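re: ur question from yesterday

yeah so i grabbed the chain u mentioned. its 187 aa long if i counted rite. heres the sequnce exactly as i have it in my notes:
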Amino acid sequence: MFLPLSMKPKASVYPWRVRQSGFSLLEMMIAVLIMSFGVVGAALLMAATVQYNKTTQYQMVAQQIANQLAESMRANTDGFMADAYAKADTYSSSISAASIPSCAVSSACTISEIANIDKTKTANTLIQSLPGGDFNVQRTDSRADIWIMWLEPSTAASLSFGTVNCRASAVSGANPAPRCLYWRAAI
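ran it thru and got these structure tokens back, copy pasting raw so excuse formatting
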């Protein structure tokens, strides 16, 4: 069907149809730049997620070890009340595994020998499970204050939580500063 000339649209009514012919190079570069910011943001989000997961994993391991130590203290209440579990050393990330001590009389261990065995097993477990793992224990009446310390991986440096939960006397001068979990248990 043919339209009379008076009904056909004029070029002045639709000026963009005449001038637009495609994307310019500048528009494409801007689009690529915006897309690259999105991709970099997604990659940073993935890296942060991995760091948070590792930090959470270390916290869970530290909680389990602190709970195991508290249960050992509950099993040897006399040793705990005699301060045989006390450990107030300064933090060191370079502690190596120690051999488990034995009892003087193999059929009957003393309360302090049992405590030394429990402390050595805890230290060895920490060394194997957490990077730079160490611990401190302090008795206050019938409560045990337990600090589990470890080093965060270098990738988590931006997630530094400081030494908020650390025993001040244990981490003074420690470089790098450890991450700490504080656990209080009633014995």
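noticed a couple things. The chain has one domain: 25-186. also Strands lie at 134-140, 143-150, 179-186.
anyway ttyl
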